[in-house]
Amino acid sequence: MIAPADSETHARVIEFTNVGLRYGHGPEILKDLSFRIQPGSFHFLTGPSGSGKTSLLRLLLLSLKPSRGTVRMFDRDVGNLDQDALLDMRRHIGIVFQEFRLLEHLTTFENVALPLRVRGEPESVYRSNVSELLEWVGLGERMEALPALLSGGEKQRAAIARAVIGRPDILLADEPTGNVDPELSLRLVRLFAELNKLGTTIILATHELPLLDAFDFPRMALTDGRVVIDG
Are 94 and 70 in contact (CB under 8 A)? Predict the structure, then answer.
């Protein structure tokens, strides 16, 4: 149930070649990005504020197009895809935001199930999967609670569950521990690590040094618009 979606195994999930990004006529925010991310890997995305971490995540989410260069995902050049093909590819990518973005009028169960409802799947099909996933992230007793009654950590776990319920091949996380205490931050990254063991490729943006020191995952360091992968 919580394993990644069945899909073909590719030599490279993600490949950037000489990618640059600018907004309008401004200077390039990202410059000459060239890197490869192997399937099933886990990378921390680091860099000072304003270095372009969120912009890079938006490129990976396919919500932005590069100003130049080539982005390949699942062995396809995303620059050659039409809107329908891009939407189909996005279904293989999950995203976790720092600010949770739960819908306040929906219960925990309904928030997590929302991506499946949008796809048109009937509740009779997904109910057991959603319930099992909520048990797995420690929210089994909070399924019927509205977001206003959840703690910050519970909201973040619900947001993570919503991101993975569609079994993405790639999971992006934009400062997902920014609103919780250090102990819960470690627990949440351990949860991401468990998802990674199931085969999901994870890129987690963070500036928290204790997290970087606590886990031996390679780092993608953004500085002056360029990226260096260490480890």
Answer: no
Q: What's the pLDDT tens digit per position in 71-127?
A: 999 889 999 999 999 988 988 899 988 788 899 999 999 999 999 998 889 998 999
Evaluate whether residue 130 is within a structural domain: no
Q: What pTM, to 2 d.p., does this model score?
A: 0.86
What's the domain range around 96? 14-103+168-230
Compute φ and ψ for 115, nearest 5 degrees: -60, -35
Contact 16, 71 (CB under 8 A): yes
Q: Name the 3-class secondary structure at 168.
A: coil
**1 part of a folded domain:** no
- Tokens in use for 211? 């997290």
The CA distance from 12 to 185, in Å, is: 29
